[in-house]
Design goal:
244 residues, alpha/beta, 9-stranded mixed β-sheet
C-alpha cells in the first residue's frame, strides 16, 4: 500500500505534523527536526482519531522533544472507516453487561477484541513498511499505548519493534495470555490502579505472563485519565534507553 500525505502543519519549532492515507486507512505522522529519527507507533483505543487527537498529539510532542518520530493510524471500524457489525454487537453487549453490574463474559471480550487484533495488526505492519521507507524515519521502532492485545500481537510477530510501552486498561481475551508468554522484548507497562473500565487483576496476570526478561510495571493511584507526569517521564526514559 502506498502512503500519500494529505496535509501538513508545524505544531511548533520542532514538530512537523502530517496527515496521510495508506490505501483506505487514515493516519498521522509527527517528526522532530532531527532526522532520521527512531519511530514510536502510538496505539490508542478504537474511539476514532478525531476524538483521540488531543491526547495523541500531546504524546507525539513529548516524543518529538526526546528526538523521536511518532505515527498512528485509524483502527478498523473506527472514525470514518466502515463499521464492523460483530464489533458493534459486542460493544452493545459489553455496555449492557456493565450497566447491569454483571461480569463481562469471555465471549463478549473475545468478540470485541480478537477480530480487531486480526484486522489491525497487518495494517500496523503495512504502515511500518511505508513509514520506514521515508528518509526522515530511521530505526529502531517502539510501540506505545493500547489496545494492549494489539500491542502484544505486534510484539510477538513484528521483529522491527524492539521495545513496547503498554497501557493496561482494555479487556484482554484469554488467548492473548498465551501470546504474552512469547513476548521477549523489553516492556514498560503503565497501570492506573483505580481505572474504572479495567480489570486490575487481569492486568496484573497479563504482566506476570509476559516472557520478557526486562519488564517494568508502573502502577499509580487514580482513574483512567489521572496518569501522573512522573509516569510519562518514566516511559520517555524507557524508550530513550531502548531506541537510541
Amino acid at each position: 500500500m502506498a502512503l500519500h500525505f494529505t496535509s501538513e502543519q508545524r505544531l511548533d519549532d520542532y514538530v512537523l505534523e502530517r496527515e496521510f492515507t495508506l490505501g483506505e486507512i487514515p493516519g498521522i505522522l509527527w517528526t522532530p527536526a532531527s532526522a532520521p529519527a527512531p519511530l514510536i507507533l502510538l496505539g490508542h483505543p478504537p474511539l476514532g482519531l478525531h476524538r483521540m487527537y488531543p491526547r495523541l498529539a500531546a504524546r507525539a510532542r513529548s516524543a518529538a522533544a526526546e528526538g523521536f518520530a511518532a505515527a498512528t493510524i485509524e483502527l478498523p471500524g473506527s472514525g470514518d472507516r466502515p463499521r464492523l457489525p460483530a464489533a458493534e454487537q459486542a460493544r452493545a453487549d459489553l455496555r449492557r453487561a456493565m450497566e447491569a453490574g454483571e461480569p463481562v463474559s469471555d465471549e463478549i471480550i473475545d468478540a470485541l477484541i480478537l477480530p480487531l487484533v486480526e484486522k489491525a495488526v497487518p495494517e500496523w505492519q503495512a504502515a511500518l513498511d511505508a513509514l520506514l521507507s521515508l528518509p526522515e524515519i530511521g530505526g529502531p521502532v517502539g510501540y506505545s499505548g493500547g489496545v494492549i492485545s494489539i500491542g502484544v500481537r505486534l510484539a510477538v510477530i513484528e521483529p522491527r519493534i524492539v521495545a513496547a510501552g503498554f497501557f493496561a486498561g482494555s479487556f484482554v481475551p484469554r488467548a492473548m495470555f498465551e501470546e504474552a508468554r512469547q513476548v521477549t522484548i523489553p516492556l514498560h507497562v503503565l497501570l492506573q490502579w483505580d481505572d474504572e473500565g479495567n480489570d486490575r487483576q487481569a492486568a496484573l496476570d497479563l504482566f506476570d505472563a509476559f516472557g520478557s526478561k526486562e519488564k517494568t510495571l508502573n502502577a499509580n493511584m487514580g482513574g483512567h485519565t489521572g496518569v501522573p507526569q512522573s509516569a510519562g517521564d518514566a516511559a520517555a526514559g524507557f524508550f530513550t534507553r531502548h531506541l537510541k
